[in-house]
TrEMBL record:
<dbReference type="InterPro" id="IPR039717">
    <property type="entry name" value="Hgh1"/>
</dbReference>
<feature type="domain" description="Protein HGH1 N-terminal">
    <location>
        <begin position="94"/>
        <end position="278"/>
    </location>
</feature>
<feature type="domain" description="Protein HGH1 C-terminal">
    <location>
        <begin position="283"/>
        <end position="337"/>
    </location>
</feature>
<dbReference type="InterPro" id="IPR016024">
    <property type="entry name" value="ARM-type_fold"/>
</dbReference>
<comment type="similarity">
    <text>Belongs to the HGH1 family.</text>
</comment>
<dbReference type="InterPro" id="IPR011989">
    <property type="entry name" value="ARM-like"/>
</dbReference>
<protein>
    <recommendedName>
        <fullName>Protein HGH1 homolog</fullName>
    </recommendedName>
</protein>
<dbReference type="InterPro" id="IPR007205">
    <property type="entry name" value="Protein_HGH1_N"/>
</dbReference>
<dbReference type="Pfam" id="PF04063">
    <property type="entry name" value="DUF383"/>
</dbReference>
<dbReference type="InterPro" id="IPR007206">
    <property type="entry name" value="Protein_HGH1_C"/>
</dbReference>
<dbReference type="Pfam" id="PF04064">
    <property type="entry name" value="DUF384"/>
</dbReference>
Length: 353
């Protein structure tokens, strides 16, 4: 005999909308605590939930909440993430400027992006809604939603913060990294330049996701000259500003700081999340892969900033990351035999941190 919970799961496909609403609402907490009740009959309840995202907005809200919780289960994650029809519906609803559940769609997509095959989004196209003023490439639409939709400016019910996590997970794949480094035809902008401005945003989710995107894309070593060039990506100010705090620095050092770091207000605070600080320090370390990167960071006096960060951020991960980059910046290039021939030096081999 089915249990009461199993009977409740059966009601999510009931023809009466009020019964579906009550059933889905009451099942949200169990989708987290007891996901097994949704895995019966070859995941039939999950299939029903995927249909319900097109139901009344309140039913869809509860169905999406259930799916967000359930995709913590690998079997369900695979089922949801490999369903092309479902993905198409999700993306279409996500870009609708009047969609009341857009943030939940973004959260679900963030979970789905942990499944490697979701990188197929890189080649996916669909017509963009007129208000978005994007092009047909789905990656550009996601990026434009993230940028233009901050603070409810595209959809009054959504801020699209969780798209930062979507793009961060996707940027682990080489083809997505290339997307971030390629000037787009429809607006003439390199995508990495659209997201770098969010490294000091008020949203922890945005800052964390963007920090991870920058770090992942930095693994493309041939792009390092563009990363460091003031007229191209110019990434260093956007990485260093979240790291630097209100400390006083030696005047001679400050004269060599990047212009953006020289006249900071006395109440300037470094990022409050040590994980974000660690990610930025690790990105700096990746950018020391080439001799040019190392020499530039010595020239603009990155070391004193790292030293203060190590001293003032009581976090093991941050301190270890700081120690690694200090070892690189303080070594003697000549003693290390660092007259680099590009592609020949061990330093040009990126190691995952």
């Amino acid at each position: 005999m089915p249990t009461e919970l199993e009977e409740l799961v059966g009601f999510i496909s009931h023809p009466n909308p009020q019964i579906r609403l009550v059933a889905t609402e009451n099942l949200v907490p169990f989708s987290s605590s007891q996901p097994s009740i949704f895995k019966t009959n070859d995941l039939l309840p999950v299939k029903h939930l995927k249909i319900l995202i097109r139901d009344h907005p309140k039913v869809a809200e509860h169905a999406l909440s259930c799916l967000i919780n359930l995709t913590a289960d690998r079997e369900i994650l695979e089922n949801v993430s490999t369903d092309d029809k479902f993905l198409g519906i999700l993306l279409g609803n996500l870009t609708d400027p009047k969609e009341p559940n857009a943030n939940l769609y973004a959260m679900l997509l963030a979970n789905m992006s942990k499944w490697d095959s979701l990188k197929r989004i890189a080649a996916q196209k669909q017509p963009a809604p007129e208000p978005l003023k994007s092009d047909e490439l789905m990656l550009n639409q996601l990026l434009d939603l993230f940028v233009k939709g901050a603070d409810g400016t595209y959809n009054k019910d959504a801020d699209y913060d969780y798209l930062a996590y979507v793009l961060a997970d996707l940027s682990k794949h080489a083809e997505i990294r290339q997307f971030f480094l390629t000037q787009q035809d429809y607006d003439g902008v390199m995508p990495i330049n659209k997201i770098k401005v969010f490294t000091e945003h008020k949203s922890d989710i945005r800052r964390k996701g963007v920090a991870s995107i920058i770090k992942n894309v930095a693994f493309d070593v041939p792009a390092h000259p563009a990363f460091l060039d003031e007229d191209q990506i110019n990434i260093l100010p956007y990485i260093l500003l979240p790291i630097i705090g209100p400390e006083e620095y030696d005047e001679d050092d400050m004269m060599d700081f990047l212009p953006d770091l020289q006249l900071l207000p006395p109440d300037k605070q470094r990022d409050t999340d040590p994980n974000i600080i660690q990610t930025h320090v690790e990105t700096l370390t990746i950018l020391t892969t080439t001799r040019e990167g190392r020499e530039l960071m010595r020239k603009i006096k990155v070391y004193p900033i790292i030293k203060e960060t190590h001293l003032r951020v009581d976090d093991e991960g941050v301190q270890e990351a700081c120690e690694r980059i200090v070892q690189v910046l303080m070594r003697d290039e000549a003693e290390e035999g660092a007259e680099n021939v590009e592609g020949d030096d061990e330093d040009d081999k990126v190691v995952e941190l």
